[in-house]
């Protein structure tokens, strides 16, 4: 008791000597610490029908049940995206002369489908490859037509529901390594392509498992969120400019297919899809393209074990949980990692 009384007396004396500004600062820090611990740091939510999936994830993927604690200065989707992009290191992945990644000559294979404007030199994909390599797996990066150093030869690019190229890659890998287990990971748009491939192929996907990250389950809702002022300038305009650059780089194959001047004038992803993507892939309208690309309507078609990782405050996939009938998630596990 004497020790406790002494500590309390010392603390009271210390606080008594503080200025008003320091007292306010200390009080705010203590309130923030409590808020951070009990409101920000939470374990992800798991949504699935089969308990076997839950048990498997808890055993083999312990982070799926552990408390998620973002860096206290960057909790929230926007800060994590901006600060992470600036501070994240760029791992070195060696390439041989044929363009194939030199990875460990081991058992399994993993295929990566990239984001909207990603390529094999994108920061996030290099981190993925580095981690997979440590586990003894080979990696194959599925780069979209015309992205990176590739030049287009035909007026066909890529979109959320066009799966022919991914199917070709999967068949190519299985033909070369027929006995090796094959998994796939799709990020953002790549996740949409992977999801549609799984829905289309059913039980014949040739994959033992798959994972999607930040899939825009409903394009209509995604475009609404991306149209808000902050998201418009942080994401929408930025990605639209990259997409325009992609078209200008391959303008020789798209002349006569789309109106190049109209494409150059777009300032949002929504406008780009209307002026370019919907026309290149023969959709009747932008709404027709988005309806066809809506992954949330095809959950019942998935027959390959699939782990879908999303953040509830992801600007590309807002409030996605409301789109699902969870009683139908026989092969799909939704992992919701709230970042704010």
From TrEMBL:
The protein's superkingdom reads: Eukaryota
The protein's GO terms of the molecular function aspect are: acetylesterase activity; monoacylglycerol lipase activity
Mind listing the GO biological process terms from this record?
Answer: medium-chain fatty acid biosynthetic process; medium-chain fatty acid catabolic process
Q: Which residues form the Serine aminopeptidase S33 domain?
A: 120-276
Pfam families, A to Z = Hydrolase_4
Question: InterPro entries this protein is in?
Answer: AB_hydrolase_4_sf, AB_hydrolase_fold, ABHD4, Hydrolase_4
Protein family membership? Belongs to the AB hydrolase superfamily. AB hydrolase 4 family.
Please give the PANTHER family that the UniProt record associates with this protein: ABHYDROLASE DOMAIN-CONTAINING PROTEIN, ALPHA_BETA HYDROLASE 1, ISOFORM A
> What name goes with this protein?
ABHD3
């Amino acid at each position: 008791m004497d020790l406790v009384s002494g500590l309390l007396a010392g603390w009271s004396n210390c606080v008594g000597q503080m200025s008003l500004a320091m007292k306010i600062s200390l009080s705010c820090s203590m309130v923030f610490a409590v808020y951070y611990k009990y409101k920000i740091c939470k374990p992800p939510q798991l949504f699935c029908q089969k308990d076997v999936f839950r048990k498997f994830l808890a055993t083999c993927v312990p982070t799926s049940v552990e408390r998620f604690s973002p860096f206290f200065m960057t909790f929230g989707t926007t800060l994590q995206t901006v600060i992470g992009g600036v501070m994240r290191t760029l791992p070195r992945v060696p390439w041989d002369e044929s363009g194939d990644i030199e990875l460990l000559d081991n058992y399994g294979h993993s295929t990566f489908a990239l984001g909207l404007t990603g390529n094999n030199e994108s920061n996030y994909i290099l981190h993925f490859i580095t981690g997979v390599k440590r586990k003894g797996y080979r990696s194959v990066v599925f780069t979209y037509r015309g992205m990176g150093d590739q030049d287009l030869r035909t007026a066909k690019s890529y979109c959320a529901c066009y799966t022919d190229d991914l199917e070709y890659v999967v068949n190519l890998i299985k033909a070369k390594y027929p006995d090796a287990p094959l998994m796939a990971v799709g990020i953002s748009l790549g996740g949409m392509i992977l999801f549609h491939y799984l829905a289309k192929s059913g039980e014949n996907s040739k994959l033992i498992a798959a994972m999607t990250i930040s899939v825009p389950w409903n394009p209509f809702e995604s475009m609404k969120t991306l149209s808000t002022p902050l998201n418009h300038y942080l994401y929408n305009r930025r990605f639209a400019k990259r997409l325009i650059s992609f078209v200008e780089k391959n303008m020789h194959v798209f002349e006569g297919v789309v109106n190049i001047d109209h494409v150059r004038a777009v300032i949002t992803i929504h406008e780009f899809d209307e002026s370019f993507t919907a026309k290149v892939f023969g959709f009747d309208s932008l709404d027709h393209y988005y309806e066809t690309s809506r992954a949330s309507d095809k959950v019942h078609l998935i027959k390959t074990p699939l782990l879908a990782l999303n953040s509830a405050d992801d600007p590309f996939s807002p409030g996605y949980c409301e789109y699902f009938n969870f009683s139908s998630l026989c092969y799909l596990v939704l992992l919701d990692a709230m970042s704010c």
